[in-house]
Amino acid sequence: MLVGYSSSSEEENEAVTPQNKSCSRQFREEDDGEGDCPGRKKAKTEEQVPKTRLPLPGCLLAMFPEDADPQAEDNTHHGGRIRSFKHERGNWATYVYLPYHPEEEFRDLLEELLSVAKAHGVTLSTQEEFHLSLSQTVVLRHHWIQPFTQSLRAGLVHCKRFVCSAGRLRVYCNAERTRTFLGMEAYTGHAHLLNLVQAIDRTMTEFRLATFYKDPSFHVSLAWCVGDMTEQMEECMKKLQSVVDEHEDGPFQLRLDCAELRCRTGNKMFRFPLEQ
Question: What is the pTM of this model?
Answer without folding.
Answer: 0.70
